[in-house]
Design a protein that fits this description.
Elements: H1 5-15, E1 46-50, H2 90-104, E2 131-134, E3 139-144, E4 150-155, E5 170-176, E6 179-185, E7 205-213, E8 218-226, E9 235-243
Parallel strand pairs: 4-5
Antiparallel strand pairs: 1-2, 1-9, 2-3, 3-4, 5-6, 6-7, 7-8, 8-9
Length: about 270
């Protein structure tokens, strides 16, 4: 499917929707070196960096390689099978279409992150910035370079039935063998799953299964989304991060020189 200059500009604008002068570290632009983590299987501490970008072309269905010459939307959290979109309900479809029409008309709906609010879950897990995981007996802490977001995983306790609604939600975890199972709910529905604008409601429950693979050089995160308002059935996606003890988290200033302020009509300025 061919793209005119207007569509291409819209898609490029969508990819550049992060609200900060801070850019992804250079390591995100080149293949991460394979560094083997020989510690215990449950020791997922340290710095990790996403290894791939799942992309779609202009029809938002066919994934293109991250190094494709064609403009495309990056950092998409969609089902892994090609030509397959999330099983939207009518509510979910309406919200998705709003974002899609905004992109192709070069008037993208404002991404909450352009206002320097937390990215939310699971979007924070696919941001092209490093994350440092700190293990504790009662809480596992995830420190994200992007916007200095913090995610707490409360270990060995039940998921609250009526959590306070926040951008990052409430996460609980437990070990299933050498796999860390994390459940999250209480997520604000102004957040989106990815840069493309995939929606969710406040009833979303995210279940993640994180485990070290490839001799510990990679951390696999398999995610399942259960949201009866936005989707007709649960669906899953997957991301992989590389172990990066060679890098450290750096300063990130979102509010300073914000390049994508939100306009009064809820669109993203600067496009």
């Amino acid at each position: 499917m061919g793209m005119g200059s207007k569509t291409a500009a819209a898609l490029v604008t969508a990819v550049l929707g992060a609200a900060s002068v801070a850019l992804p570290q250079a390591q995100a632009q080149t293949p991460a070196p394979r560094i083997v983590n020989k510690s215990a299987p449950r020791d997922i501490s340290g710095v990790w960096f996403i290894t791939q970008e799942i992309r779609m072309n202009a029809d938002l269905a066919i994934r293109t390689p991250a190094n494709s010459k064609n403009p495309s939307i990056g950092q998409v959290m969609w089902p892994q099978k090609p030509h397959q979109e999330p099983p939207f309900t009518a509510w979910g479809r309406e919200r998705w279409d709003l974002h899609y029409k905004g992109m192709i008309n070069n008037a993208p709906v404002a991404d909450p992150s352009t206002s320097c609010v937390p990215h939310g879950v699971p979007r924070i897990m696919i941001a092209p910035y490093p994350v440092q995981i700190v293990l504790g007996p009662k809480v596992i802490t995830m420190l994200f370079e992007v916007n200095h977001n913090i995610r707490l995983v409360h270990m060995n306790q039940p998921l609250p039935k009526h959590p306070k609604i926040t951008m990052m939600g409430y996460s609980v975890g437990h070990w299933d063998g050498d796999t860390l199972v994390v459940e999250t709910n209480g997520l604000d529905d102004s957040a989106i799953l990815d840069e493309a604008g995939t929606p969710h409601s406040t009833q979303l429950k995210v279940t993640e299964r994180l485990r070290k693979i490839d001799e510990g050089s990679l951390l696999e995160d398999t995610l399942t989304f259960d949201d009866p308002i936005a989707y007709t059935k649960p669906w899953s996606s997957r991301e992989v991060m590389a172990w990066r003890p060679d890098i450290t988290l750096t300063e990130y200033s979102c509010e300073e020189n914000n390049r994508n302020p939100v306009t009064a009509d809820g669109r993203t300025a600067g496009h």
